[in-house]
C-alpha cells in the first residue's frame, strides 16, 4: 500500500519485538538492498539492525559485496597507543565513580586498561579474540574470555564499565547492558562509545552522494546501528537512571577546525561517534 512502510519480520529484536520496518535508503547505502538482505528498524524500541543477522547461518552480505569486504579493523582501543579522548574519559570517570575499578568489555590488546592501571585503577577485561586475550595476559591483566552476559562477576563489582566500539557487534545490546548494570556498584558509571552510522555528517553526505566506498568496510561487520535516541532508550530499558549522550566529531584536522566542527556536529547530533555516560542509581 502506498505510504505504508514495508514490514519485515526477523526472529526477534533484543527487546522481544518481531516487527521491523525496512530502511531503504540505508540498505542501498550499505549495498544490502537486494532481498533477503536489508537494514531494518525495530517498530518497538527503534533499534536499527540487519537482516539476516550476522549470528544467523544465512550469508550476511550479497556475493558482490562480500568480494569487496575488507577484514574488519581492530577497534581503536586495541591499538598500541590510547587516543587522548580515552585518557580524558578516564580522568573524568575518576572524579565521579564510587571506586576506581574498571571493567573494559572487549579490551582488545589492553592499551586502555594498561593506561588505567598506570593511573591507579584496578583493572579487569573481557576479550573474545584469542590473540588479543593472549596479549592481555602477557601484561598481567585479569581477563575473562567470555561474553559479558556469561561472565560470573558478583553484583556491584565495578565502579566503571567501559565499552568502546563493542555494543554494535553483540548479539543482544539489551542483554549486555543489563549485565553491565548488574555488575556496577550503585552510583557507578557505564561509558559506551559506538559509531554514529545513521546520523553522522559523513554518513548522511555519503548517502546523499550514494557512495558506498566507506560503508562497505565499516558497517558491514556491525549487527546494530545506533542513533543517540535509540542508544538512550536501550540504556533506560537496561535499568540505567540517566544517560548523558553526546555525538563528538573526530576528524584528523587542526585544533581550531576540530573544535568548531565538533561544536556544530554535536548540536545536530551529527558527530562521528555516540558516547553515552549512564549511571546506576545510587543506593
Ligand atoms: Zn526492539
In short:
The chain is of the alpha/beta class and 283 residues long. The chain is 30% helix and 21% strand.
Which structural class fits the helix and strand makeup?
A: alpha/beta
The chain-level mean pLDDT equals 83
| Strand segment count | 12
**Any ligands, ions or cofactors bound here, and which?**
zinc ion
Describe it for me?
The protein is α/β, with parallel strands linked by helices and 283 residues long. It folds into 2 domains: 20-69 and 198-225, no CATH class; 84-195 and 226-279, Vaccinia Virus protein VP39 (Rossmann fold). The chain has 9 helices and 12 strands. A 7-stranded mixed sheet has the order 7-6-5-8-9-12-11, with helices on both faces. A 5-stranded antiparallel sheet has the order 1-2-3-4-10. β6 (122-126), α5 and β7 (143-144) form a beta-alpha-beta unit. The protein starts with 6 loop residues before the first strand and ends with a strand. The model is unreliable at 1-6 and 70-79 (pLDDT under 50). Bound molecules: zinc ion (ZN). Residues 13, 15, 17, 42, 44-45, 47 line the site of zinc ion (ZN).
Amino acid at each position: 500500500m502506498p505510504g505504508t512502510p514495508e514490514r519485515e519480520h526477523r526472529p526477534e529484536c533484543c527487546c522481544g519485538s518481531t516487527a521491523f520496518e525496512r530502511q531503504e535508503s540505508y540498505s542501498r547505502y550499505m549495498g544490502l538492498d537486494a532481498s533477503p538482505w536489508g537494514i531494518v528498524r525495530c517498530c518497538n524500541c527503534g533499534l536499527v539492525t540487519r537482516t539476516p543477522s550476522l549470528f544467523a547461518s544465512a550469508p550476511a552480505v550479497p556475493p558482490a559485496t562480500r568480494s569487496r569486504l575488507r577484514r574488519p579493523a581492530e577497534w581503536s582501543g586495541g591499538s598500541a597507543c590510547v587516543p587522548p579522548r580515552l585518557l580524558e574519559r578516564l580522568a573524568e570517570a575518576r572524579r565521579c565513580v564510587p571506586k576506581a575499578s574498571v571493567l573494559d568489555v572487549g579490551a582488545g590488546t589492553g592499551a586502555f586498561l594498561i593506561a588505567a592501571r598506570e593511573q591507579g585503577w584496578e583493572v579487569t577485561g573481557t576479550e573474545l579474540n584469542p590473540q588479543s586475550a593472549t596479549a592481555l595476559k602477557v601484561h598481567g591483566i585479569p581477563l575473562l574470555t567470555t561474553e559479558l552476559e556469561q561472565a560470573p562477576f558478583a553484583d556491584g563489582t565495578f565502579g566503571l564499565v567501559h565499552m568502546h566500539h563493542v555494543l554494535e557487534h553483540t548479539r543482544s545490546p539489551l542483554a549486555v547492558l543489563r549485565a553491565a548494570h548488574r555488575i556496577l556498584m550503585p552510583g557507578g558509571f557505564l561509558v559506551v562509545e559506538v559509531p554514529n552510522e545513521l546520523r553522522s555528517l559523513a554518513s548522511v553526505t555519503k548517502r546523499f552522494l550514494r557512495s558506498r566506498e566507506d560503508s562497505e568496510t565499516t558497517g558491514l561487520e556491525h549487527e546494530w546501528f545506533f542513533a543517540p535516541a535509540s542508544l538512550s532508550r536501550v540504556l533506560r530499558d537496561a535499568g540505567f537512571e540517566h544517560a548523558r549522550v553526546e555525538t563528538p566529531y573526530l576528524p584528523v584536522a587542526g585544533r581550531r577546525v576540530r573544535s568548531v566542527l565538533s561544536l556544530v556536529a554535536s548540536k545536530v547530533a551529527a558527530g562521528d561517534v555516540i558516547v553515552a555516560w549512564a549511571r546506576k542509581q545510587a543506593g
